[in-house]
Amino acid sequence: MATAPIEPFNPGVPLKREWGTALSALRKLLADGNDTHQVFRIMRALNGDVTQRNYRRLLAAPGGGRLAYQRVELAERLTDRAWIDSFAEGTVGAAYRTFLDSTGYSADGLAEISMAEFGAAQVEHPYTWMARRERDIHDIWHVLTGYKASEHLGEACLVAFSYAQTGGLGWAFIAAGAALKSLRITGETAFFKAVVEGYRHGKRAQWLHGEDYEALMAEPIEAARRRLGIADPVKYRIAQAKLNAAGIQGI
Hints:
mainly alpha
């Protein structure tokens, strides 16, 4: 029997939601919070047309059409160490440099993981460019929001922030899973409240996808936070202190 030809990947067609795949990946992620592969599997399973919608919103945003036309590959800029080293102290770029040096993370490391899960990410299409952009700014959002990437609490708060910013159900699924697990692990609500705060801060902030990140990196970080309406994560710090005092490293 002849096998049916495999349909070529078309980024213009929204992915169908696969709740079973998302639930399986969430269980693995909650068992090992460092398993970044599961994050991308959840995104693929649940985010549907979110990248397409955010791309269309970018086109309508002030300056967004220019960004979409130029199609800068941020991973290439963020792995240019000479460029990263050029930023003055106190800027977003300098804070990002400190982030790289303190965590050992890199933009190309995240890109490699995403490529393992999304082999079609290099298809020549505006939506796949937008998906790469969404991926590459994740660690800059850590820097802007103050949510640490090296702890599960910080990641949970940022994914809640990201859900508010993007509308991607994958982010909401991860945030809810981590928040609910925290109630069982800690026996109290500080972690849960910090995640809710992350969502609320994401709703109140300016739409960060519309930013020119090459220009933003040179901006003083406190001025950038004020301009973008990124609030101080008070409940996050309270939860962070409680987890540290209890000797809890992960959720």
